[in-house]
Automatic annotation (TrEMBL):
Occurrences of domain Intracellular proteinase inhibitor BsuPI (ranges): 61-156
Taxonomic source organism: Tumebacillus avium
Cited InterPro entries: Intracell_prot_inh_BsuPI, IPI
Keywords: Signal
Protein name: Intracellular proteinase inhibitor BsuPI domain-containing protein
Signal peptide: 1-22
Keyword Signal (UniProt): yes
Amino acid sequence: MKKAMTVLLSCAMLFAFTGCGAKDATTGQSDQPAASQNEVPGLFHKAESNGIEIVLKASKIKQKPNEELTVQAQIRNTTDKTLFVQTTNGCDPGVRISIPTTSGQFVPVQDGEPQMCTEVMGVKELKPNQTIMNTVKLQPQDIKPGTYDIVATVNLTSMDHGMMNTEPPKVIETKAQITIVE
């Protein structure tokens, strides 16, 4: 028992002094890159509105201007009824990710062959507790050091006899910040 307690205390001291796996106090996000290409690290930002839970994750919350950034937005229907998400084309998963800037841009990194997206607008069903996820890789170009908002947007629409309603969609948006450092 005494030996187990000594090992436990030693591990706690090692963690406290080395800062291994240090996380941002506000977001709980690690400042280390993801362990694998498919994994986007822990919670970055979580919000809920109108029956939609949005979780935003990023490969890093602090990065250098030339480092590729992976961002993941996940939406989940928290109601007991089917919701309808408006899409802009056949390739739109229903949750869009953007990082607005006043100078430079975050350019999407293409994985594999380009997709042909011909459908102009569409609607996706989001059944109770169903999740839709969108992961994008972005390469900063001419981005200056500073703080930038990652924006996840979902357009909820209603359905009327199988046709899209003529009312404008309800826009649900959440933001989280990343910092570009020199």
